Amino acid sequence: MSQENSLNKQQIADYLRKNPDFFRDNADLFEVIKPPEADHGGNVVDLQYYILERLQNGLKSMKQKYDGLLVSGRDNMSTLHQVHEAVLLLLRAGSFDQFLEITTFDLPALFNVDTVKFCIESDAAEFYAGKFEEEDTASGIGFLEVGTVDKIMGKDKSIVLISDTGKQFLYGFEQIFSDCSGIIESAAILRMSLPSSQRPCLLAFGVRIPGHFYDGQGTEMLSFFAQVFEHLFDLSFNDSGIADFI
Fold first, then answer.
1. What pLDDT digit, counting tens, does each position of 211-237 carry?
2. Residues with Cβ within 8 Å of residue 195, at least 6 apart in sequence
3. DSSP label at 190?
């Protein structure tokens, strides 16, 4: 900025004298301006200066929290929309094959993740994993040995969020994500139980970017979706007849 266009202290002071309402109309400036600290001599502290400085810091903190709430609110609205759309898609599935197709192909795009995996415990998990590996009918199902869900989730957790899979160990990670475990950097694992048989199962969301899921993240809508998914899957699963021999 040239010297001709720059403002000096005297010009600023003159402007403020001519415009006494300036700070009333621009109250946000009180968050950043530094008030003068009076010199009372000796060890006397200017309380007014420090009180105003503390109020300014409080305003900044409140503004940061307010901005955080706005971001969180927008994220929640986005997740709510995603869950509504996902539920409607699953409700429209006309067959078990279509249900699995929606889970495998539509849900990742809808939730902005790289993969969605559904895993179910089975007494013959190793056999079925190989049997259906090349078949369309159950290609959307992953199989876990009995007891694996509790080992993955622990006894009391319904959701596990992994921010960085390279730093946070997750039991059964390779089983859950099978062919794509090498590229998944962040994951959300949801515990489920099929209503008709109480068979433990999991729904897993995987992303190739670390930090997508993290501790402290709101999970209410994901929990709701897991409950809807387990009921709809159970109905479709039993109607297909596959449940009788898996």
1. 998 887 778 888 889 999 999 999 988
2. 230, 231, 234
3. E
Residue 1 domain flag: no
Higher pLDDT, 175 or 208: 208
Residues 25 and 141 in one domain: no
Those residues whose C-beta lies under 8 Å from the C-beta of residue 122, and which sit 6 or more positions away, are: 128, 143, 144, 145, 146, 246
**Statement to judge: residues 19 and 126 lie in one domain:** no
What string of DSSP letters covers 37-69?
PP--STT---HHHHHHHHHHHHHHHHHHHHHHH
Domain that holds residue 20: 9-65
Task: Please indicate, yes or no, if residue 70 is contained in any of the structural domains.
Answer: no
Task: For Cα atoms 84, 89, 92, give the angle at the middle one, nearest 5 degrees.
Answer: 125
Do 106 and 217 fall into the same domain? yes
Query: Is 215 within a domain?
Result: yes
Helix (H, G, I), strand (E, B) or coil at 73: helix
- Give residue-wise pLDDT tens across range 144-153: 888 999 999 9
- 48-63 in b/e form (b: 16+ CB < 10 A) is eeeebeeebeeeeeee
Whether residue 28 lies inside any domain: the answer is: yes
